[in-house]
Amino acid sequence: MKLIKKMARVGRECVACGCCASVCPRDAIQILYGIAAQVDASRCVGCGRCAKTCPAGVIEMIEWSNEK
């Protein structure tokens, strides 16, 4: 069964400030190696808090599908 949901996607311009990770209610975002944020698709609920908080404006909400 195809599942479509909203999910955060972090752009390459991420400055790894951690603002997005601090507001995520499901701990779906981690800062990797102090370089960039990464979203765990299995935990992201698509609430958009991270995108609203991002001071660099590099997080967007996209439609995501589990279909390959």
Q: What's the helix and strand layout?
A:
Layout: E1 4-10, H1 19-23, E2 29-32, E3 36-39, H2 49-53, E4 59-65
Antiparallel strand pairs: 1-4, 2-3
- Report the uncertain regions: none
Radius of gyration: 12 Å
* CATH-defined topology: Alpha-Beta Plaits
Q: How would you write the strand order of the largest sheet?
A: 1-4
Q: What best-fitting shape do the alpha-carbon axes yield? A: elongated
> Which CATH class?
Alpha Beta
Q: Per CATH, which architecture?
A: 2-Layer Sandwich
Total of helices: 2
Question: Portion of residues in helices?
Answer: 10-25%
User: Mean pLDDT, rounded to whole units?
Assistant: 92
DSSP strand count? 4
Key features?
Alpha-Beta Plaits; two-stranded antiparallel ribbon; 32% strand; 4 strands; single chain; 68 residues; elongated; alpha+beta
Q: What would a concise description of this structure say?
A:
The chain is α+β, with helices and mostly antiparallel strands and 68 residues long. It has helices at residues 19-23, 49-53; strands spanning 4-10, 29-32, 36-39, 59-65.
